[in-house]
Design goal:
Oligomer: single chain
Number of strands: 0
Shape: globular
Strand content: under 5%
Order of helices and strands: HHHHHHHHHH
Distance between the termini: 23 Å
Number of helices: 10
Largest sheet: none
Radius of gyration: 18 Å
Structural class: mainly alpha
Length: 231
């Protein structure tokens, strides 16, 4: 029964984790960092910051919602978590709409954050900080990580299974960032052109990718919250 609950929780986390993994800006950032002279140390530092940020947000939310009365869906605390999910769903849909409205027009270049122009001067500390901020403080990924933590908190898992669920979320959500770093370390020359192509694609289609992801995940989270609150 507990194993089935864990599998169900991880299945519910999968769409959110994938949305985090293919978020364009962190992928672009890590590719830029991997193109600098200090690619090895800065890339590893960025990946470490990214992983810590995702794990920290999901863990904090899990702790806050872990006593939410998952075994009693009619309790006031469980109802509160349902309303949190409703709020998160609405926030994700709002972010999707904002992303679409802010997309560049036909022929207009995609604007990247100004700090990316300074990446070649980053040290390990700044690189780790960038990874941490993009995973834990970036509004889109922050809302997604909060949603993941709330989902785990509501699943009624044993303590050890909570850890497994968070680990699954972090691993899946880090596949692209950590994968890019490992790929660069294994094949420095061969990875350069591949990662440059990925960066160009993500930069060009950033708005469309995030609009679809945030819209789909927002609808899912909103539906879960509404179903729990009024079900």
């Amino acid at each position: 029964m507990l194993a089935a609950s864990l599998a169900q929780a991880v299945g519910s986390l999968l769409p959110v984790a994938v949305a985090v993994a293919i978020s364009p800006i962190p992928i672009i950032a890590v590719v830029v960092i991997l193109g600098t002279p200090r690619a090895r140390v800065n890339g590893l530092a960025f990946a470490a910051g990214w992983v810590v940020g995702l794990a920290a947000v999901a863990t904090v939310v899990l702790v806050l919602t872990g006593a939410s009365g998952a075994d009693d869906p009619t309790s006031s605390s469980a109802t509160g978590v349902n309303w949190v999910q409703v709020t998160l769903g609405v926030a994700l849909l709002a972010l999707a709409a904002r992303q679409w409205r802010g997309r560049p027009g036909p022929g207009e270049p995609t604007e990247l954050p100004e700090w990316m122009e300074k990446v070649d001067r980053f040290g390990p500390g700044a690189s780790a900080g960038a990874g941490l901020v993009l995973s834990a403080a970036n509004p889109k990924n922050l809302v997604l990580a909060i949603s993941a933590g709330a989902t785990i908190g509501q699943a009624g898992l044993a303590a050890g299974q909570d850890v497994v669920a968070i680990a699954a979320f972090v691993v899946i959500g880090s596949l692209t960032v950590v994968g890019a770093v490992l790929y660069s370390l294994v094949d420095r020359r061969g990875s350069a052109s591949v990662l440059a192509s990925v960066k160009a694609f993500m930069a060009t289609h950033n708005a469309a990718i995030m609009t679809v992801l945030l819209g789909v995940i927002g609808a899912k989270v909103l539906g879960q919250g509404v179903g729990g609150a009024w079900g």
